Amino acid sequence: MSNLARKLQQEQQQQTVQAPQKVRKTNSWLSPGEKILGVTFCAALCFGAVHIISNQAAIYELNKDIQNTSVKLEDQQKINNDLSMQVGELSTPDRIRSMAEKLGLKLNDNNVKVVQE
Q1: Residues 6+ positions from 89 with CB-CB distance below 8 Å
Q2: Scanning 11, 14, 30, 85, which has its CA 20 to 30 A from the CA of 69?
Q3: Where is the sequence biased in composition, kind Low complexity (predicted)?
């Protein structure tokens, strides 16, 4: 019986030794070159998106500055118009004559020359 047991043991060892180990080859669906191209494309896409967004932000800031400047310009034009109306009111001949009389100046009609524009 010992021969029979040894034969079984040898057969089992041969089966385990004879069974070739199956090497699994991982088969990637992308080659390394395709991976590099993909990463490069994604990086370029992200860079372009950031560049476009930063340009839009700069354009928005410039438009806001232009609008603020135009509002300030309109306000200054209103102030200038009000001041020119005040100049027109304060430079009337009657007012100038009354201010001259208050300061002690007298009107001499012989020395007055009329200038027309």
Answers
A1: 95
A2: 85
A3: 10-21
